């Protein structure tokens, strides 16, 4: 921009200096190199990066939550989407004011992305554009890819999309070939940059794989939600990754694992508690089976943000997801350690406003 050109131009040669008219240039005189000066944007970025994301008004420690199961079809994207919106719709009493968690959803299902579709968002911008810019910045600054940092303003303006519920979303590319071009180093840089923003919760949807960037996300997480159904196969996939891969990594902390059972039907011959006992992972939520959620996804809506009054089963689903959201933030009805009880009545009023009733 114009400011950049002014900031980077340094008059050092007499021949270029209008105030040196009439002076004789000594042909043997060494012409000094113009001093290198960083651009205004670079200096602004450095200032912004020195500001911590731990805002003074933050009520909880920042959470990086990864939803994972190597098996496909267990509902990872749906639960991630609904949990993200549930978190952003919570009303928490802080003195005389209401506090709403700031939430970002990061779609790392890079080999079969669908988050943009179920949230009715545009295909771009997405993580591919950000990854390309991270690589360019790494080359420019001669840094490792993981060490590249962007300002919060850059991130929100250029790479994230904002859902009408207030949720920020980093979508995955629609083209599978583009998703395959995204490296572990880029994913690490993306997650570290998001953690520098003011988000209270960063929710990460993962693909049905054990790619290195998926494992990197799990290792970076404060909480890992092992999402399973009451199906032996989906539970075995969690067990296999846990025992064969994660347990052999020194930096992996098993205490961060939490089990959530999805699509539960009391008619199943295996209970959620039994799966938790076998996996040795604490069971924190049971999400009831809700066939209507497919129609919600098809319309680009949410059980918390939609076009019509939720049916009974849909309401049970929403209640279970909202309960999980409160557990993740360690908020109880009687009050959290920070004495910030959920304001139930104001939360319900807020959700009513979000619904566009027919």
Summed up, what is this model?
By secondary structure, the protein is an alpha/beta fold. It is built from 14 helices and ten strands. 38% of the residues lie in helices and 14% in strands.
Characteristics of this structure?
358 residues; alpha/beta; 8-stranded mixed β-sheet; two-stranded antiparallel ribbon; 14% strand
Shape: globular
What is the N-to-C succession of helices and strands?
A: HHEHEEEHHHEEHHEHEHEHEHHH
Strand line-up in the sheet with most strands: 5-6-4-7-1-8-9-10
Structural class by secondary-structure content: alpha/beta
> Termini, distance in Å?
48 Å
Tell me the Rg in angstroms. 25 Å
Indicate the percent of residues in helices.
25-40%
Textual characterization of the structure:
The protein is an alpha/beta fold and 358 residues long. Helices cover 38% and strands 14% of the residues. The protein is built from 14 helices and 10 strands. It has helices spanning 2-8, 40-49, 76-88, 115-118, 127-141, 152-158, 176-179, 184-195, 212-220, 232-244, 272-279, 293-298, 312-328, 344-354; strands at residues 63-68, 92-94, 97-99, 103-108, 161-162, 168-170, 201-206, 223-228, 257-264, 283-288. The chain has an 8-stranded mixed sheet, sandwiched between helices. Helix 11 (272-279) links the parallel strand 9 (257-264) and strand 10. The longest helix is centred in the C-terminal third of the chain and has 17 residues, at 312-328. It is globular, with a radius of gyration of 25 Å. The two termini are 48 Å apart. Mean pLDDT is 82; it is low at 1-23 and 333-339.
